[in-house]
Design brief:
By secondary structure, the protein is α/β, with parallel strands linked by helices. It has a single domain (30-262), classed as SGNH hydrolase (Rossmann fold). The protein is 40% helix and 16% strand. The protein has seven helices and nine strands, in the order H-E-H-E-E-E-E-H-E-H-E-H-E-H-E-H. Strands 5-4-6-1-7-8-9 form a seven-stranded mixed sheet, with helices on both faces. A two-stranded antiparallel ribbon has the order 2-3. Strand 7 (153-160), helix 5 and strand 8 form a beta-alpha-beta unit. The longest helix has 28 residues, at 2-29. The chain is globular. The chain binds 2-acetamido-2-deoxy-beta-D-glucopyranose (2 copies). Pfam families: SASA (PF03629).
């Protein structure tokens, strides 16, 4: 009798222990991964003056135990700004939209676990440089695959790019088809054909053809692609880069768009 009780107790406690270990392992592996790509306003130039970052971190971008960053050495670490410092390393990076996005998503209680950000944006790049098979495309894919090694699921691509495609009428004209092809190729190579994409319609530009590029972005015709409009966001003295405040607003808008995908 008593040995039977012991046996039952013993097997119950073993069961409890192994379940707990499994779910704890699950929690650390169940990250929600977001790919950040595009050019400088995704990499982040908020708070840059005379080539230096002012080191101001707004409350919306404060680091959290729940937000990780996949660094250039392909290791997860606590996300601290600037998120792209070792990726877009030829330029000085400041505040971008990534941390404001992540913190805003966490506040929405979407039950998606911890957040893993995979920075891939490079300043000054045109959409043609992101074509399938090119170095930027390959780097994005290899970082995405490496980020998945520790478990987790890719929830979305956050894309902010196009300022450099406003310099020539030819590039502006081809922007929509190039962008659609880029999204389609990336989804196909990640084997996630319906992967949500949240992209930004330009607030600023390097050349005169901003309206053409914005039109392409706002009219993009693919399922599961949402566009948030950065027009009117605060821009810094260079007339091109979003201020810290502008980046925070864009990050929050992208979080709102992501929440719509989860609704
Ligand atoms: C681990 O996560 C998967 C996928 O989210 C889920 O189906 C499974 O039930 C989880 N296992 C435990 C032990 O929590
Ligand atoms: C999320 O959960 C926290 C803690 O339970 C709560 O204070 C907060 O109001 C919730 N936010 C939303 C948007 O539901």
């Amino acid at each position: 009798m008593s040995s039977l009780i012991w046996l039952v107790l013993l097997s119950c406690s073993t069961l409890v222990i192994s379940t707990k270990t499994a779910s704890e392992a699950n929690a650390s592996q169940g990250k929600s991964i977001f790919i950040l790509a595009g050019q400088s306003n995704m990499a982040g130039r908020g708070g840059i003056k005379r080539g230096m970052w002012d080191r101001y971190v707004p409350p919306e971008c404060k680091p959290s135990q729940k937000v990780l960053r996949f660094n250039a050495q392909q290791k997860w670490e606590k996300a601290q700004p600037p998120l792209h410092r070792d990726i877009d390393y030829l330029k000085t990076c400041g505040i971008g939209p990534g941390l404001a996005f992540a913190n805003s998503v966490l506040k929405k209680n979407l039950s998606i676990g911890d957040i893993g950000l995979v920075p891939c944006a490079i300043g000054g790049t045109q959409i043609s440089e992101w074509r399938r098979g090119g170095p930027l495309y390959k780097q994005l894919l290899s970082r995405a695959h490496a980020a998945l090694q520790g478990g987790g699921i890719i929830r979305a691509i956050l894309w902010y790019q196009g300022e450099s495609d406003t310099r020539s009428q030819e590039d502006a004209k081809l922007y929509k088809s190039r962008l659609q092809k880029f999204f389609t190729d990336i989804r196909s190579d990640l084997k996630l054909p319906k992967l949500p994409v949240i992209q930004v319609a330009l607030a600023s530009a390097e050349g005169p053809y901003i309206d053409e590029v914005r039109k392409a972005q706002l009219e993009i015709d693919l399922p599961n692609v949402k566009c948030v409009d950065a027009k009117g966001m605060k821009i810094g003295h260079d007339g091109l880069h979003l201020s810290t405040d502008g980046e925070v607003q864009v990050g929050k808008m992208m979080a709102d768009a992501f929440a719509q995908f989860m609704a």
